[in-house]
Amino acid sequence: MALDIHQFPCLSDNYGYLIRDGDTGVVASIDTPDAEAILAELHRLGWRLDLILNTHWHPDHAGGNQRLKDETDCTIIGPEEARRIGPVDQLVKGGQEVRLGATRLRVLDAPGHTLGHIVYVDDEGGNAFVGDVIFAMGCGRLFEGTAPQMWGSLSSLAALPDETRIWCAHEYTLSNARFALSVDDSPALRDRAAEVERLRAEGRPTVPTTIGLEKATNPFLRAPLLRPGLEPAEAFAQLRAEKDAFRG
């Protein structure tokens, strides 16, 4: 059976994700941005939390680990860096696999935003839980890693099938679209930006997105096309610096 994915807003602009294996009913929380909200959603759904799957150590991703561990006795799985903020029962890194009941989640190393950031990919179901590596029409800031590292991480995600759904952790799409339009005037981007404006005006989420849609409209994946003559990682670095300074 397919993976059940329950998405809900929390904090100021985060999304929480509870995922449930359809065959076994095993449930995981992708990161723990808001323990109170996660517990409320579990209660509303009638689900029991079995696993936490951390992508990286930042407080809006792992800050609820201890509370949820105390409340549910779940198992916390994540990268070594997540121990900077709380307990981790099982360490994972790229090349390994996490089992959520009958669902296999492939772990990818994705440094750049942080050095130990990882991504969980449900190849069979066509889902990728990407934390803060890539956003709809954007990508994470380089808090710890380098531009070549982040470009490599984005390139790994871009190699996934175009139909893969990207479940990113923040609703940043409206501001990302404004920057994208300042560096790219493709018809596909203009159409998407208009759709994003409509969705947000209606209070609707712009997440998930897909790999194919991001390849067509995300300026960071399109960096070599938008900055011709530069090496890909250099083109990405230039766009990332422009985004950091953008006030539009």
From TrEMBL:
It comes from the Bacteria. Its EC number is 3.1.2.6. GO terms for molecular function: hydroxyacylglutathione hydrolase activity. Thiolesterase that catalyzes the hydrolysis of S-D-lactoyl-glutathione to form glutathione and D-lactic acid. Belongs to the metallo-beta-lactamase superfamily. Glyoxalase II family. HAMAP family: Glyoxalase_2 (MF_01374). This is Hydroxyacylglutathione hydrolase.
